[in-house]
Amino acid sequence: MPVGPSDIQASFVDLLKVLTGLARETDFSCFFEGAAGAAAELLGADGAALIMHEDDDVLRYRFFLGLPEDYQQQYANYRFSSSQGTAGEVFRTRRSVYFSDYPSSPNAMPEYVAAGLKSNLVLPVFAGEQTLGVLAVSWFSCSGPPHVDEVSVKVAELLASMIGAAYHRQELEQELLRRAQHDALTGLCNRVLLFDRMMHAFHQADRSERLAAVLVMDIDGFKRVNDRMGHEAGDRLLREVASRIRDVARESDTIARLGGDEFVVLLENVHSLDEVGRIIRRILAALNIQITVNGMSERVGVSIGATVYPFDDN
After folding, report:
1. 267-312 pLDDT, tens per residue?
2. d(CA 67, CA 85)
3. pTM for the whole thing?
4. Helices 231-248 & 222-229, crossing angle to 10 degrees?
5. Rounded distance, CA 309 to CA 314, Å?
6. Which of these, 267, 213, 222, lies nearest to 245 by C-alpha position?
7. From the CB of residue 203, how many other CB atoms can be counted at a distance below 10 Å?
8. Which of 99, 136, 186, 195 sees the fewest Cβ atoms within 10 Å?
9. How do residues 54-89 score in pLDDT, each as one tens digit?
10. Cβ atoms within 10 A of the Cβ of 59, count?
């Protein structure tokens, strides 16, 4: 059936509505659903998956829309080499690829064939000049058309690039938030995030009728290390202290560096004072450290003070 001017105008109006909605969307999950849903609807596909590149040269599934539930469960966070499959080819060449008969395509991966993938259009996902990953628009319930027209591919590429820009913006925002809340040297929480966690811990202690404890510690001998061995050795010692506290603290504990050689451990959901004492003893044992630089050695430890909520609330 021929497509008339009114059909083209209606399609343009629909696309404009989608783009307007995306321009106002601040949550990335919702943005992905809107953009990927528009691409899938435009092409008559079942849905789409966002596959992103990671530092160790692998691709990883991150988001799904409209694909079979068992497929999403099987491939949630699935990782594979960026040299594999159609996704790898598109990531490397930065060009879109469409296969109407995926099982017979040269880069078909057996696990996807077994999962029932019949056709797919894979589009590069950009942020500026950087390739972040690919958007795979897929057909499972039936095969896609023998060919996808150029205009539809261009629109789908635009939507994929918009997804890339939104994803990149989200990553930047999360990194800025992480830097605002964490110590740059050790990666531990800073006083801003610690204060927020303390308020939450005290509130939870009131509700659960359990205890919360704050352990404040500084390094005995830190000044000697800095004076004798230099600031690089001091920084190395601070990172070692942070690592050792992580090793012995509970998963639910918050570890923070306030500055200099001062560290804090916030203990939530504590059952007894004996439990606080056991954790303190583990930290003291772990932080009996000997540091050696250029033949010079210093042994350091920590001094720990503790306050327990609600006993020390006043």
Report:
1. 999 999 999 999 999 999 999 888 887 778 888 889 999 999 988 6
2. 19
3. 0.71
4. 140
5. 9
6. 267
7. 11
8. 195
9. 977 899 999 999 998 989 989 988 999 999 999 999
10. 22
